[in-house]
Structures are given as C-alpha cells and as structure tokens.
Amino acid sequence: MANPTQASEAAAPAGTAAPAAAPAAGGLNFKAVLQEMIRRNGSDLHLKVGRPPTVRVDGELESLELTPLRPEDLKTLAEQLMTPRQVKQFADEKECDFAIGVPGIGRFRVNVYQQRGSLCYAMRAIPYQARTIHELNLPTVLEEIAMKPRGLVLVTGVTGSGKSTALAAMLQHVNENRHANVITIEDPIEFLHRDINCHINQREVGTDTATFGQALRRVLRQDPDVILIGEIRDIETLDTALKAADTGHLVFSTLHTMDATQTINRVLSFYPPHQQAEVRFSLASALQAVVSLRLVPRSDKAGRMPACEVLINTAAVRDNIRDMEKMLNIPDLIREGAVQYGMQSFDQSLMQHYSRGAISYESAVFYATSPAEFALRVQGVAGTSDTSWSGFEGESNS
Questions:
Q1: pTM
Q2: What one-character DSSP code corresponds to residue 274?
Q3: Average pLDDT of the segment spanning 78-93
Q4: Which of 45, 92, 148, 205 is the most exposed place for a label (fewest CB within 10 A)?
C-alpha cells in the first residue's frame, strides 16, 4: 500500500522544484503532466490510483491520455515532494497541505490525502504574479475596498470560486498604492508577493510559525497596517480578526459561504447564543465589506467570468446587523446601495455580464440567486420605480 510515511529523509523542502528527470518506463512523468495542465489552462490536477491524471479546465474535469496511475507512482511522488515534517503530519492525520514551485512551470498548492488505503493528490495551479482587479473582470469598487484604512474585508465563495485569486489582486492593489506593513498568515502560502511600495511578510503555518493560533496571537505585536489571514476556520481566528479590525488595522480573510447574508450568519454562528448580541455590535463596527464570488462559463470565448456580489457596510447595513429583533435584510440593502455605494447583487452582476454578451442566458439563469426574477427582468418585466438595476442592463438583453 502506498504510504508517504516511508518517504526518504532527504525529501526536498516544500516550495522547491519538483523533480525534472523522467521516471522509469511506465511511471509518472510528473513535470510533463504539470506542463500539460498549464498548456490546457487548467486550474486543478487530480492524481488517483487506477485513473490517469485528470485536469480541471474551466470547471470541467478532463482525463489526460496517459496510463492509469499505480500505487508505486504516487508513493514515489510523495517521497520526492514531501519533507520529513510533512511525512510525519501525513502519518498522524492522513492528509497534508503544502506548496511547491517548479521552475519554468509555476507554483502549486498541494493537498495529499488517503482514500481506500491509497494516496490521492489535489493540486491547484497558482500564478507567479497576482493579476489585477481589472484583469480578473472584478468590479472596480474592489479597488476602493482594498484601500480602506481599517476594518474587516471578507472574500467568500465555494471551493474553486476564485477567493484566493481575488484576495491576491486586492493585496496587489494595496502593494501598488500604499506604503504599509503587510503580514500574511497562510497555510500554505499561495501567491508570492514581492515588495513594491509595501513591506510584505508572508508567514506559512508549519514553516514560519508553528500554528495559526500562535501566529495570530503575536501578529498585533509586529506593527502591521494590513493583515491577511488565509481562512477563518475557528472562533480564535475570528476573534483576532475582529479585534485587529476594530483597533485600526485592515484585515483580509476568506470564508466558505455562498453570499453576503450567509457570511454574516456564519460569523454569528461561531458564537453561542448568549454572546451573539455582543458579536453583532462588534461585527457591525469592524466589517468593511463582503465580496462573494461565483465563476460562470463564458459564452464569448474560453474561460470563466466572475459573478460578484458586493456588500459595503453602510449605516443602514450596520443598523441591520446590530438589530437582534430583525432578520437580516441584506439582499434589499445591496440593491438599494447599488447606485450610491457601488454595491451589487449576484443577479445584477450576472445581468451585466449577460448584457455584454460575455455569458449565455442559460448560464446566467443557472447561477442566479433568484432565477425566476432574473428571467422576468430579461424579458423587461419590472416595476417602473425599480432603479436598482440601472447600469447593469444593456440593450442586448431585450
């Protein structure tokens, strides 16, 4: 049975080059597989015993025309990629996260896990250079959000929706337009940021700090202006993020939630009922914005387009978060704040992309939060007093 606990003590450290030499006949040529993944513009690579390497391209899985993988192929790969510390972690937990860099190809976030007694790999391609907000087709209001002097900014979405990429673009905007001390705490480090105008320190859990909790307890002593927390996973991380945002720091982080309303509910759900009134006030004070993402297949060319919901913490939003007597009314507040504050709902974002011909009607309806309402809007059925869609509709949606 393939098991990385038997890996060589001379394994290369995470972040170094993967082996370039071709393996023995019938084995896995790992570098060639990565090159093919990049050639196809794939986002993820899956390696599993009994199947050929499989790449995710524009959201769909494509198997490469190679022989099915054998247990010894994946065991050998573990021996080449994992450090002794990672080998021990896998032996204890049966899964491990790390990142590797392959010169001339790119960086990859790697998750090794076990299924039915054999090894599996999930690898996410990470560009060497973070793309800009404009290049990613994200709304320009994200540039304003990124330049806020303080507060908590949450980027949310399901796995593979572009959270890390959007967060890297916002940090890149900060790096180009502020003179700030930036501390990131990641597990593992994904995008590498070089200093432009900012002083950026990227800390990887397990390599630069023992645990997330330890790094978070000390981050406020490191004179940060901007703090990036890879993901809010527990109440300790959330407490630190809220405290830092409330004491004059700009804090970026991610959550696995579908939209702004679910994000606020998820934050509150970290705490027991008797603390939620206090947490509502804390969140209402600290929150700057929630940016939620969904990736939609393009119809005009290959690739996907980000549908983006943006919630800005205006006075009306703060009052709604604080009020224990009322249900969250975030969708209405987003629509009402579209013109004045640059907020937008998923359906407004989809309408904008559809009106420009970037996505199909079928995709827009499929990814819409309210498909029936969206379909009526496309047909021109709407109240005459409803101006919240102004600027999102074009002439092509009639």
A1: 0.84
A2: G
A3: 93
A4: 92
